[in-house]
Amino acid sequence: MPATLELQRIVYCSQAARPDLALPLLAEVLAVSDRNNRRDGLTGVLLISRGRFFQVLEGAAQNLDRTMNRIRLDPRHHDVELVSRRPIRSRRFGEWAMVAARITPQQQPQIDAVIDHCRDAPEAAVDAARALLDQQIAA
Question: Phi/psi at 84 (nearest 5 deg)?
């Protein structure tokens, strides 16, 4: 498989430009991301809490590069930090072009923990985000 088609996973964290609007923007971001990611063959998850974003994207390198360029230019957030990029054998979020964990009082501490540790332990944060989604699906 050519390197450009090899599956990769990226993880980034960022800050909302307007933390007070981060949650209301979630539906808009998810709708646009879902459409773009379906077109580009990307899958992933987005977590938002307290004005902070955590996102995992999976797909071909060239599509991830194009998407990250759009993300970096998006005025809804700043301080976009790519914390992990690596080849993968299979997708962790293959069921979704883009999904977000529901923020409930019970889930808030778990979502905050994922975002808190995205920079120092990105792969553990990916696993925790998947476990959080699995808990919500099972509920």
Answer: -160, 140
For the chain, the first-to-last Cα distance in angstroms comes to 39
The two structure tokens encoding residue 94: 């293959």
Q: Which of 112, 85, 94, 82 is nearest to 41 (CA)?
A: 94
The pLDDT, as a whole number, for residue 1 is 45
DSSP 71-96: HHH-TTEEEEEEEEEEE-SS-SSTT-
CA-to-CA dists, residue 41 to 3, 33, 49, angstroms: 16, 11, 26
- List the domains of the chain with CATH numbers: 7-138 (3.30.70.100)
Dihedral sign of CA atoms 137, 86, 31, 97 in order: negative
- The total of other beta-carbon atoms located within 10 Å of residue 52's CB is 20
Print the SS3 string covering 99-125.
EECCCCCCCHHHHHHHHHCCCCCHHHH
More confident residue, 102 or 65: 65
The pTM for the full model equals 0.90
